[in-house]
């Protein structure tokens, strides 16, 4: 019984305590702060309080808005209205800073102020040395299909590419010499008078005008320079550009190639027969007329056959023709003469400069030579090919003979192969003769296998005139040791295989075949030597848009291929396969050969 009373007492006490706690909370509720921690910092000091009042106790306000600062303009609807007005931006009152003040003659007063000249932290000598930068010009077509072409450095053009750490130089002002420049002070602020470097001993330059943002920019590159500056600048002794020559010397020294694209003309013609799948092309490389091209010196040896098979009248014609050819040599050329019979007789043991004294001595050497003895063509040429011509200049052996050896190596094939193998393309061999008792087959193949040509005139009396004319084609060499790359075109169908040396006024012609469906683009890269410099010619063309030729292109291609096959037959022997190809081509294209 007592336990039950204790439980009832505890329950009663709990209820009483709960009532007292709720009563205390209800009494203290008007003093409780709601969301104070979330209010802006400038409102925390003015905490809001909530009090429940009767509507009758509220003050009455007029509907019309009152003057600014007189209180609420409308009847407050809720606590949210109070908060929005408390958080509304405050318009600052008018001050002296917000007022527009008109200063009389402001432009004139500002123009009279002199800006202090800044002294550069870097010595003027160092700045002067860094003003010019190396100039690089890159071909627009830097990557050509199937042909690797190195980037080239050429002479400066109007486009200048400066590295980030280089100082600019403004060129091309009207009235200034081509070697004068307007320097820019890199330390001067933009728009200041120090932007124009003052030359030694000259007065201060006028200030530059500030550009007007409301005016459209002028087309002139000096649009931001005042007219007064332009009038004064031509009269100033400007700094001379002295760095051009060293830069050009360094560029010429370091670049590996000199490009000849602007000094030669490429003419491409095609012919596609109606009944054949493949077509033919003819490429002619012609040095441009009037272009300034370096003419190379040359090393020439005249080998004259003076054996008894050469009648005296014919030998005299040859001697006079050689003498006239030597007179046309330049002083930087070198020459020698070999008169051969069964043994050779040399004018000099080595090549000599083509001075007038040596030319006179050569004329005396040629005077009165007599026709006698046997003919040893190999021994007449061998002493020459054992010597080495200068690098980058053409070595020429000019043979005057009937090509009929009677001593030494008598077999024509063996003679041609032996001389060609020992020569190793060091010298170009040109052959000349006259009359009807000439082994023209031997002279042609000897010249063809050694990058040369042969010429036989029908009348002996013509040799005195024709020999110098034939040799004059070799007066002005411009490129030697040539090699060609034809890209996608099958070089096995391109003839000649060996590109001859280039001479001014002479056309180098190449024939080949192509597939119109596969080989739409023609690309050729030709390289060679000119002295110590390596030169390059690059040519690209669309075969479908090339000039259309006739069947003469196909016939000339077949003639060049037959010549190549005959040369191969001379080198390796007349195999049935080679003879079969020669006869098939001769029959198909209507060409007569010695194998008919």
Structural notes for this entry:
With 596 residues, this protein is α/β, with parallel strands linked by helices. Among the domains are: 131-255, no CATH class; 299-475, 3-Layer(aba) Sandwich (Rossmann fold), CATH 3.40.50.410. It is 28% helix and 17% strand. It has helices at 2-28, 79-87, 106-112, 124-129, 227-232, 244-254, 312-327, 356-366, 377-385, 412-423, 440-448, 463-472, 551-572, 576-589, and strands at residues 169-170, 182-183, 257-259, 264-271, 279-287, 299-305, 334-340, 344-346, 352-353, 395-400, 428-434, 454-457, 477-485, 502-503, 508-514, 521-530, 533-542, 547-548. Strands 6, 7, 8, 9, 10, 11 and 12 form a 7-stranded mixed beta sheet that branches. A 5-stranded mixed beta sheet has the order 3-17-16-13-14, with no helix packed on it. Helix 7 (312-327) links the parallel strand 6 and strand 7 (334-340).
């Amino acid at each position: 019984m007592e336990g039950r009373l204790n439980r009832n007492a505890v329950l009663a006490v709990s209820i009483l305590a709960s009532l007292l706690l709720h009563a205390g909370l209800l009494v203290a509720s008007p003093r409780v702060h709601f969301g104070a921690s979330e209010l802006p910092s400038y409102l925390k000091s003015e905490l809001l309080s909530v009090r429940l009042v009767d509507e009758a106790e509220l003050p009455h306000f007029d509907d019309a808005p009152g003057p600014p600062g007189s209180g609420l303009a409308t009847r407050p609807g809720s606590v949210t209205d109070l908060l929005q007005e408390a958080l509304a931006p405050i318009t600052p009152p008018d001050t002296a800073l917000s007022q527009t003040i008109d200063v009389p003659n402001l432009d004139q007063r500002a123009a009279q102020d002199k800006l202090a000249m800044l002294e550069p932290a870097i010595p003027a000598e160092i700045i002067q040395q860094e003003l010019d930068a190396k100039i690089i010009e890159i071909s627009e077509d830097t990557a050509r299909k199937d042909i690797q072409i190195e980037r080239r450095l050429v002479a400066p053009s109007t486009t200048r590419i400066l590295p980030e750490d280089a100082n600019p130089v403004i060129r091309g002002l009207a009235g200034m010499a081509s070697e004068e420049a307007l320097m820019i002070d890199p330390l001067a602020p933009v728009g200041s008078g120090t932007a124009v470097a003052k030359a030694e001993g000259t007065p201060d330059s006028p200030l530059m005008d500030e550009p007007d943002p409301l005016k459209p920019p002028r087309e002139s590159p000096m649009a931001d320079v005042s007219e007064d500056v332009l009038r004064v600048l031509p009269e100033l002794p400007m700094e001379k550009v002295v760095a051009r020559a060293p830069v050009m010397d360094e560029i010429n020294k370091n670049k590996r190639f000199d490009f000849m694209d602007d000094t030669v003309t490429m003419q491409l013609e095609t012919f596609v027969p109606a009944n054949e799948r493949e077509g033919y092309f003819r490429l002619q490389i012609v040095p441009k007329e009037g272009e300034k091209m370096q003419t190379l010196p040359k090393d020439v040896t005249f080998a004259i056959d003076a054996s008894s098979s050469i009648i005296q009248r014919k030998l005299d014609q040859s001697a006079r023709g050689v003498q006239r050819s030597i007179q046309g040599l330049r002083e930087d050329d070198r020459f020698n003469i070999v008169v051969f019979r069964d043994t050779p007789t040399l004018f000099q043991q080595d090549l000599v400069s083509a001075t007038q004294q040596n030319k006179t001595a050569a004329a005396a050497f040629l005077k009165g030579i007599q026709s006698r003895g046997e003919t040893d063509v190999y021994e007449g040429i061998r002493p020459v090919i054992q010597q080495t011509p200068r690098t980058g200049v053409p070595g020429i052996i000019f043979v005057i003979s009937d090509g009929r050896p009677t001593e030494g190596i008598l077999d024509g094939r063996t003679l041609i192969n032996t001389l060609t193998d020992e020569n190793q393309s060091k010298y170009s061999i040109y052959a000349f003769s006259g009359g009807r008792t000439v082994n023209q087959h031997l002279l042609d193949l000897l010249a063809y296998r050694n990058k040369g040509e042969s010429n036989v005139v029908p009348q002996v009396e013509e040799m005195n005139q024709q020999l110098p004319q034939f040799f004059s084609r070799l007066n002005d060499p411009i490129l030697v040791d040539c090699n060609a790359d034809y890209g996608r075109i099958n070089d096995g169908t391109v003839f000649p295989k060996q590109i001859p040396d280039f001479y001014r006024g002479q056309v180098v012609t190449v024939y080949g075949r192509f597939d119109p469906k596969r080989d739409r683009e023609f690309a050729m890269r030709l390289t060679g030597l000119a002295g110590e410099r390596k030169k390059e010619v690059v040519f690209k063309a669309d075969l479908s848009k090339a000039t259309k030729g006739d069947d003469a292109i196909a016939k000339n291609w077949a003639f060049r291929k037959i010549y190549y096959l005959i040369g191969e037959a001379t080198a390796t022997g007349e195999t049935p396969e080679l003879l079969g190809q020669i006869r098939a081509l001769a029959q198909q294209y209507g060409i007569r050969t010695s194998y008919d």
